[in-house]
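Researcher: Let's try something more involved. This one mixes different molecule types, so please make sure each is placed in the same coordinate frame as the others.
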Amino acid sequence: MFFSKLKQVLICLKAGRVTLPYPYKPSPPPEGFRGKLKVDIDKCIGCAGCANVCPPGAIEVIDFDEGWRRIQFHLTRCISCGRCEEVCPEQAVKLTDEFELSTSTKEDLTVTIEIYMDTCQRCTRCFKPKHPLDKMMITGFRE
Amino acid sequence: MLTGREIVKTLKTKFDKHILEAEEKVSNQVFVRIVPDALIPVICFLNQTLSPRFLINAATDMVREDGKYVVSYIFSLDTEKIFLCIQMAVNAADPAIDSITPIIAGANWSERETRDLVGINLRNHPDPRRLVLADDWPDGVYPLRKDFPYDYKPPSELQNKVALKKPPQGTKVIPIGPFYPVLEEPAYFKLFVDGETIVDCDYRGFYSHRGIEKIAESKLTYNQICFIAERICGICGFIHSTCYCEAVERAAVIEVPLRAHYIRTIMLELERIHSHLLWLGIAVHIIGFDTLLMQSWRIREPVMWLCEKISGNRKTYGMNLIGGVRRDIPSDIHDEVIRVVERIERETLEVIDAVVEDTSLHLRLKDVGILTEEVARSICTVGPTVRGSDIPIDSRVDHPYAAYDLIDFEVAVETGCDIWARTLVRLKETIEAVKIIKQCLLEMPDGPIMGQVMEEIPPGREAICCVEAPRGEAIHYVLTGEDNRPHRWRVRAPTYANLQCVPYIIKGEHIADVPIIVGSLDPCYSCTERMAVVNVKTGAEKIYTKEEIIKR
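Model: All components are placed in one shared frame. Result:
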């Protein structure tokens, strides 16, 4: 009993103080951390592949106007699994190492991008033109 | 030791008229289709000849396909290393089967769950109360039937409240839970006590039933389910996603690269290390020894950092997909993995050395919460709980998955049957896990980590997978379906089996020992409940309804 307690005291003394000074000092996560996602609007082609695979359904695709597609990333639902990053054909979605997401306004955690796309003459749904220059030829281009 | 084919043959010669179909669909998984009336004779025959261990039963709605409900009883034949699945089709007009709970006590909850969720009525069930569904859920509405939309909210009916047992003559009621400071996760135990001694108890749980099986069967796709499966448990999530993936891979015959199997094994063992150290901390915290809580959690922390480095997050690694894993463990990180686990091994051995002779721990943990071998076998208890009672059940050996069939390790078994024995089993397993990880890193072959997945997983295939979680066996049963999602996905977490033995192991113990006895099972449950108030002077009990609580 006595020796047990002595050994326990030794374990505690040997360990010393281990608490990290975070948040007074930053504590950067390791490489490859899956944090807040970042979208590069210039690369996104609006294929909605990410919305298809997203397990919690955090990515919403709305064709809100003729030729316009809005993609919303609801980070409040995001589980940082990185499936969107994996399937994106253009590497437009990246997971960053940012993990301090607390905010008092929910809107801060919604990333919205709007992409101008071609409209299919048959089904009137959006699709990406073949060449980036093609979209400049469309009347009313405003990007 | 019989092979699957021999078991089929034995059953066919004995029950020729009653067996409609018997086949080894997946290797070491025998599926036998019988007529519903033959269930009890078949189970009795199996009990006498093969001593099967009951795992779960699952009911599947096949009304749209052939107008029937299919009920599957899944058993494990531990010596033969075979899963035996007894299935029967019940008419949709009057779905009812004979309950096997009078023969196998461990089937109690599982059978009640099929009744609650799919509406298979039970004949001769000893305790046919509601189990899973909420107190205000209307009668006759069965959420896992296919005609029930996943987002439908039925109107609340408060009169359906489950009647808990009446206290026996001469006893008082002590409620523990649902919010009890020591058992961090809420559960409601109604203890019947005579003075300090517990006479009997009743349990109401399942407040946290969130219907993930339903959402998986009606909304998600195969690869999305991996992530919701991982969120079944906050500690052993990777176990559930591995179990689900392996079940689908076995059903659809998807070849998984060997390297992916090894990576899964390493992650599973890392999870076992941090889960056991977490449990040690919580257990000693329950008995008031917070120094060890601090130290065991300190020892645990580097594993979390290591997992973060490998997978990108401390918990919920998100590594599994059907066909393999998403992230590799590159060779430049191997040294760090070995350094971390060796440090864990060294420090855990120091802790073991410091506590094994501690008589104050012995006083609290030895000869308390005795789980006899007989009770353990009849309730079909699993994991370290049962290995502390000298029953060497371990699905890593009995039903190998991932790379465990290629690895040498020992199954930790203790004979004490008490909480101390369960503690020692867990500590030994932590040390064993370090050896397994080192062995895996040494033997891991090069190659791809993701297998070729065919375009469509064909419908109508079924398979079972059983993974040894830190708490015991997690079991997933998958029946593949149309639209890129399973037709039926049945999950059983280990605590489901272990919690059923609580009434047996707290009988005759003191009230003060209840938290550590329940804690020694490493239980894993959560959520909301009503409130029970006992008038101290009169001993009268009044349960406040939801409305009354809101009014206050």
